[in-house]
Description:
By secondary structure, this protein is an all-alpha fold.
Amino acid sequence: MRSKLVLPIIALFAISNGYTQDSNSNSEDRISALEAAVATLETRLATRTTSGAGSMDNSVTGLSVQRRVDDLARQVESLTRQVTSLQRQVDQAGRDAAAATREAEAARRDARDALMRAR
């Protein structure tokens, strides 16, 4: 049972870590990829739960399904925190870019004024 969950969990963490380290990607692409990863995990969970339900006792199946749902809920919460962190980073980068643009425009004006005074 646990070995079946380990591989998807490792894959999820590898995917999510790869997305948080790649600073050149567009945030919309990152969010879409994270949503796709969650959808894939939900599909795998549903498939495994459905295929294993016939061979197990109902109480065991219920506990197993509940455990899987809890694990999936924790993964979704983790992804939500990562997306929120990513959004904060994107917002900060936008503010930094706007500040840099303002500074560049001020420097350009100062240089133009200095050139006009020098003539």
